[in-house]
Amino acid sequence: GYLNASVLLTPGPKYNLRAGMQAITKSTGFAGPGVHATFQNRNLFNGGEILEIAGNISYEFQLAKGSSGNLNNFEFKLENSLNFPRLIAPFIKVNPRKVYSIPNTRFELNYTLQQRALFYTINSFLFSYGYNWNSSRFIFQELKPLSINYMSVSNRTEEFEQILDDNRFLARSFDNQFIPSIEYT
Question: How many Cβ atoms from other residues are within 10 Å of residue 15's Cβ?
Answer without folding.
Answer: 9
